[in-house]
Amino acid sequence: xxTQRTSVGELSSTTEKGKTRDKIAEQIxxxxxxRTLSKGxxxxxxxxxxxxxxxxxxxxxxxxxxxxxxxxxKLFKKDEIPKWAIKYSDYHMPTT
Length: 96
Known about the structure:
Helices cover about 55% and strands about 0% of the residues. It is mainly alpha-helical and about 100 residues long. The termini are far apart.
């Protein structure tokens, strides 16, 4: 569905709502969610930047030995702080 440009603050009745990643995933001729697409892109970018672990992950995904989500968790989740922990720490920092 085509979208129409509108002035700031004005909504068009033809505008589709949703995240861009989900809209892109819908266009791919393969069943893939927008979130999984984002994970795959992050793995791809890391591999492109010469990350050997990411390159191995891409090989496993291509050979159907592992899923995008499983490889993403191996590569990135262990290093990230959960969003709830960040929000919690904003309000509950110890004072000295």
